[in-house]
Amino acid sequence: MQIGEVAARTELSLRTIRHYEDTGLVMPSARSQGGFRLYTEADVARLMVIRRMKPLGFTLDEMRALLGATDRLDAREELSPAEREELLERIRGFEQAVEQRVEDLRTQLTRAEEFADTLRARLARQAPLGAMR
Predict the structure, then answer these.
(1) 3-class SS of residue 30
(2) What is the pTM (predicted TM-score) of this model?
(3) Which residues form the HTH merR-type domain (predicted)?
C-alpha cells in the first residue's frame, strides 16, 4: 500500500511516517516503478508499535532498541539460547517500563480528574452569585 493509505490506517501524518523512515525506524518494503513508497502489513504493524510507544515518552533510540530486539527474534536466523534469552530479557524490560508509565499516566489522570472536579465545584458555588447580578 502507498504512504497515504498507511497514514490513514495508522493515524500518523505523512510527515511523521517520513520522519520515522529518515531515522531508520521503518523502511518501506518496496518502491513502485514511479518511486512511490510501498508498505506491507508488517510495516503498518511496526508503525503501530512506534505510535503506541511515542505517547508513553519512549525516545527514538528506545524504539529502535525494542524494534531491533523483536526483529531479531522474528528473523529466520538461528539464535543461540543465550542470545534468545538476552533479547527476551530486553523485551521484558520494555514491558516493565510500559507498565510503570501506564501506572504513572493513571495517577496523572486521577489528579487531573480531581482538579476538574475542584473547578466544577468552585463554579457551581459561584453560579448563584453570578445569577443575582
Answers:
(1) strand
(2) 0.81
(3) 1-69
C-alpha separations of 84 from 62, 68, 89, 90 in Å: 19, 13, 9, 10
* Cβ neighbours of residue 71 closer than 8 Å, sequence gap 6 or more: none
Judge contact between 18 and 36, C-beta under 8 A: no
Among 105, 60, 103, 66, residue whose Cα is nearest residue 88: 66
At residue 23, φ and ψ (nearest 5 deg) are -85, 0
Q: What domains appear along the chain, each with residue ranges and CATH number? A: 3-132 (1.10.1660.10)
Sign of CA dihedral 73, 78, 84, 86: negative
Q: CA nearest 83: which of 93, 74, 73, 91? A: 73
Query: Under a CB-based contact definition with an 8 Å cutoff, are residues 70 and 26 in contact?
Result: no
- Asked if residues 24 and 64 have their Cβ atoms less than 8 Å apart, the reply is yes
